[in-house]
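FIELD: query
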Amino acid sequence: MRPQSMGAIVAALQEQGFLESSPDPDDGRQSMLSLTATCKKRIKTNRTARRDWLSQMIRTKLSAAEQKQLAQSIELLQRLADD
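FIELD: result
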């Protein structure tokens, strides 16, 4: 990605109130970007909505046996991820 393209994206996110910038304490020519409280709230809301959707789909579309199989699969995947 070209710096000009990234600059336009950052500017748009700042205009929408999702990013804020502050001077880099080690290099005044640079800026530190961070998410705003508004952005963090939006992310949390979207994650909750996706989680609720997935939970509802599992309950309504999978049989009890399939739900048990899915739970066991998740446990196996978690073991792999923990290693």
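FIELD: remark
The beta strands are 19-23, 31-35.
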